[in-house]
């Protein structure tokens, strides 16, 4: 790759609340090599005059399922893995074109998809995977209806987001297996869910001993556990057992939020998921039983943002849309903006996301040594957060690892 010099634009530093003028940014061999308030002299570099546009770090989504190709989870499981992989490739291309240069896949994607991105087989965001999500029998990733007596649920299929694991020793083994196969963190289902057929929202899942065993294995491997949780009881329990990443958290209460903040946890609200399900979930295969669960978590979502913010609990950006509903992806920015200041939303999709991906200093920043994951935005996102919405319509350029995947600058 030839060196590229960005000059003449405005610079978005996520740690600040305003744009900075007059910085030059030099990119070479996939990384940012220099950021300077003085002109950078690089004769061999392609010079790009941003003409007042905004240069900012690529966005990070910390809760997505790239192998979720349809809302109907069982249909997704039944589909051939080769078909799911090809559809996932298209999904990832679309995600990148929205400006998301890194995605933390919160169960489903495997090492093959990571390699496909790294080897350039598919154009898509950098993938941070958890492998299969771990669920107890009858838990959130158990797709069997009550009359289904099968004990084998095709866990080997790429379209199956999880695997059923019961008992402390089996949980330890499953965590070790997912980590061996390339998982960068471990995902568990610790609460009932919307899209699963037999577990009420308020059901508590996994014993404390099982959760602690999984946390122990993750920590032994130098990483952490992420838990699907909605209710205050489930969240508190997960924090007490050592879970670091708290997904959803719609029904969290102030005391538990403060406990989670003190423990150093990070929350990942995914409010657009329930908007999408409410709008079109049943049309795309969500069962009536699952649809009835939506309002329980949807109504409390906005309040949970205020509770977590007031408690000092960091929040990373997440979407969690299933299949056909992924078209609503960037609506999450608009939902968050009903409660949170714009600067905090941008930090959630950059700095905090990078921390949760264990890639601080590598992504989510424009700094020497960081990956050259960059967006050129037509305007000031601090003044108008919707510039990050609309499926990348307001982005003149999208770069990941020093390569342009969209470029309307010339």
TrEMBL record:
It comes from the Bacteria. SUPFAM superfamilies: Composite domain of metallo-dependent hydrolases, Metallo-dependent hydrolases. This is Imidazolonepropionase-like amidohydrolase. InterPro entries: Amidohydro-rel, Metal-dep_hydrolase_composite, Metal_Hydrolase, Metallo-dep_Hydrolase, OTAase-like. It holds the Pfam family Amidohydro_1. Residues 54-393 form the Amidohydrolase-related domain. Keywords: Hydrolase. GO terms for molecular function: hydrolase activity, acting on carbon-nitrogen (but not peptide) bonds.
């Amino acid at each position: 790759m030839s060196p590229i010099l960005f000059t003449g634009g405005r610079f978005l530093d996520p740690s600040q609340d305003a744009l900075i003028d007059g910085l030059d940014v030099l990119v070479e061999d996939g990384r940012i090599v220099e950021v300077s308030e003085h002109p950078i002299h690089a004769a061999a570099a392609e010079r790009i005059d941003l003409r007042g546009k905004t240069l900012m770090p690529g966005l990070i989504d910390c809760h997505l399922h790239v192998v979720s190709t349809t809302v109907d989870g069982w249909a997704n499981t039944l589909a051939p893995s080769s078909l799911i992989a090809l559809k996932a490739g298209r999904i990832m291309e679309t995600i990148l074109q929205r400006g998301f240069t890194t995605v933390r896949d919160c169960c489903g994607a495997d090492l093959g998809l990571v390699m496909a991105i790294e080897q350039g087989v598919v154009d898509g965001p950098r993938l941070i995977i958890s492998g299969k999500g771990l669920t107890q029998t009858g838990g959130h990733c158990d797709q069997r209806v009550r009359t289904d007596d099968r004990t084998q649920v095709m866990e080997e299929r790429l379209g199956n987001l999880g695997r059923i694991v019961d008992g402390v020793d089996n949980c330890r083994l499953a965590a070790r297996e997912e980590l061996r196969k390339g998982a960068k963190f471990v995902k568990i289902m610790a609460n009932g869910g919307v899209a699963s057929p037999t577990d009420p929202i308020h059901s508590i899942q996994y014993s404390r001993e099982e959760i602690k065993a999984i946390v122990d294995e993750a920590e032994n491997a130098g990483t952490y556990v992420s838990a699907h949780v909605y209710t205050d009881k489930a969240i508190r329990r997960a924090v007490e057992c050592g879970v670091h990443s708290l997904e959803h958290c719609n029904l969290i209460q102030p005391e538990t939020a403060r406990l989670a903040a003190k423990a150093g946890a990070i929350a990942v609200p995914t409010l657009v998921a329930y908007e999408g399900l409410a709008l079109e979930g049943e049309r795309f295969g969500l069962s009536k039983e699952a649809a009835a669960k939506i309002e329980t978590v949807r109504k409390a979502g906005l309040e949970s943002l205020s509770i977590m913010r007031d408690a000092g609990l960091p929040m990373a950006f997440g979407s969690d849309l299933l299949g056909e509903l992924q078209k609503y992806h960037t609506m999450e920015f608009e939902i968050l903006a009903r409660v949170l200041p714009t600067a905090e939303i941008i930090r959630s999709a950059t700095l905090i996301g990078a921390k949760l991906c264990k890639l601080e200093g590598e992504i989510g920043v424009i700094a020497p040594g960081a990956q050259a994951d960059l967006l050129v935005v037509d305007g000031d996102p601090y003044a108008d957060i919707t510039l990050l919405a609309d499926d990348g319509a307001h982005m003149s350029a999208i770069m990941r690892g020093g390569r342009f995947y969209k470029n309307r600058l010339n």
